[in-house]
Amino acid sequence: xxxxxxxxxxxxxxxxxxxxxxxxxxxxxxxxxxxxxxxxxxxxxxxxxxxxxxxxxxxxxxxxxxxxxxxxxxxxxxxxxxxxxxxxxxxxxxxxxxxxxxxxxxxxxxxxxxxxxxxxxxxxxxxxxxxxxxxxxxxxxxxxxxxxxxxxxxxxxxxxxxxxxxxxxxxxxxxxxxxxxxxxxxxxxxxxxxxxxxxxxxxxxxxxxxxxxxxxxxxxxxxxxx
Length: 226
Known about the structure:
Layout: H1 6-20, H2 23-40, H3 44-65, E1 70-74, H4 87-93, E2 107-111, E3 116-120, E4 125-128, E5 132-144, E6 147-158, E7 161-164, E8 167-170, E9 177-182, E10 185-190, H5 203-210
Antiparallel strand pairs: 1-2, 2-3, 3-5, 4-5, 5-6, 6-7, 6-8, 8-9, 9-10
Helix pairs in contact: 1-2, 2-3
């Protein structure tokens, strides 16, 4: 009984196919090669072996085609990719307004399993909402339904102090309010101002606006006294 010959040649051919075939052609090539082996194999044990091998490769191909839980997007490389999910769309999917981040995001990563994300900006910048908000070059946090926790890289200005924003959350079901957790202070703000993605001021423009003396008013929002 011949256990070598054509069978050995077939196995060598199979090895070359697996290692040299392009990924998008791998499934079809493996299927054709294995069907040929099953028809020409001289023993039942050999056929059983290749059946098991076929199943193993089939399930590995399924695992290979499942997308990674980590989403990454580089705007410099994917400007023409309409199927790419933007970081602003991810915010809205989690019930948060898209305007929490400026329009200058150049890259981000997001792990759907842990909720951890990283957002990269070209440089630090500022947006004026009810308060002046500072965005660092790198922003990190944990995204959950209706909230961002473990937040780093966003600050708000109170008088001459810059205060870290530790958490941002909204009501569930949604209301007209959004909440910034600054230390032990939980400040309620109007959510409408965060529904639109805003452009950021660079350092020079932002610092020039910081030097302006605010007009005294009883309605001036405060973080530390409320």
